Amino acid sequence: EAALNRQEFFIEYQPQYDLSNARILGAEALIRWQSPERGRVSPGAFIPALEETGLIHEAGKFLIASVFAQLAAWREAGHRDLKVAINLSPRQIEGSPLPAILKEALAEHGIPPSAVELEVTESLLLSGKDTTRKALEEMERMGFSIALDDFGTGYSALSYLHNYPFHKVKIDRSFVTAMDTEPKGEPLVRGILNLSHDLGLVTVAEGIEESQQEAKLGEMGCRIGQGFKFCKPVDPAAFEALLAAEPEIGRD
Ligand code: C2E
Ligand code: MG
Ligand code: MG
């Protein structure tokens, strides 16, 4: 808890790539906790604890402040098209005035909402609360793009696509892995991609670790890829180095 004050939290960025030309489109911001006692603790372990204690709201504010400041600096440095995605946890959406917090952060840092993406996992939607849907709709109207994270791992994924204002679908890593390990893996991914594209959604594949996964996803028309094959989550300086190393062609 005091960890928030002691600056033990920081953010890493995992680049997202255009699968048609392998160029960086943006990054997903991932929170990290370096505990003096426990070392690196994974978000899967400490986020539920933050939610139970209500500290997720403080953590969320820290995340938004850090990411928006970072994004403003990158835009200042000329990366005007960069998109950064942040993850929102279930309690965060339900228990805090997120639209207001985000609005203030946009104004403070002079960032257009189109440069920010909000990721919500399917588990968030399991509660099926009307307030969640309304909050997402409000943020969508504000101009943020909304991504459905970990697609396929929840219980009624298809009805979510139908009822919520998503722009993007992030295909869960388990499906990407299954493409090479299970006979039904590839048709399943193809089906998800076709369905998503028919619905006008942009597709992102998570957890690409192998070249053949990248190749197959590209052939099947998946737009964006993210995973250790390209790059693990890195600190801001390392992400800047990746941007700097990109060929200039096609950039304004
Ligand atoms: P997520 O949003 O689905 O994030 C992707 C996770 O997959 C990250 O784990 C990332 O490090 C990992 N990953 C990326 N590429 C690969 C790959 O090729 N192979 C494998 N094996 N893993 C890969 P991480 O950072 O441990 O985060 C876990 C989850 O914790 C995230 O899943 C997200 O739901 C949550 N989370 C992370 N940061 C935040 C945050 O700032 N706020 C909230 N509310 N949740 C967060
Ligand atoms: Mg995510
Ligand atoms: Mg995910």
Task: Please give a structural write-up.
By secondary structure, the chain is an alpha/beta fold. It is built from 11 helices and 9 strands. The chain has helices at residues 43-53, 56-76, 90-95, 98-109, 122-125, 130-142, 157-163, 173-181, 185-198, 211-219, 236-245; strands spanning 9-18, 23-35, 39-41, 83-88, 116-121, 145-151, 168-171, 202-205, 224-225. An 8-stranded mixed barrel has the order 1-2-4-5-6-7-8-9, surrounded by 5 helices. The chain is globular. The chain starts with 8 loop residues before the first strand and ends in a 7-residue tail after the last helix. It binds ligand C2E and magnesium ion (2 copies). One magnesium ion (MG) is lined by residues 149-150, 170, 206.
Brief synopsis:
The chain is an alpha/beta fold and 252 residues long. It has eleven helices and nine strands. 46% of the residues lie in helices and 22% in strands.
The number of strands is 9
Subunit organisation of the chains: single chain
Shape: globular
Number of helices: 11
User: What is the end-to-end distance?
Assistant: 44 Å
Taken in chain order, the helices and strands follow as: EEEHHEHHEHHEHEHHEHEH
Q: Which residue ranges are poorly predicted, with pLDDT under 50 across at least 5 consecutive positions?
A: none
Strand order of the largest sheet: 1-2-4-5-6-7-8-9
Estimate what percentage of residues fall within beta strands. Answer: 15-25%
Major β-sheet annotation: 8 strands, mixed, barrel
Ligand species: ligand C2E, magnesium ion
- The helix/strand class is alpha/beta
Radius of gyration: 18 Å
Mean pLDDT across every amino acid position: 92
Helix content: 40-55%
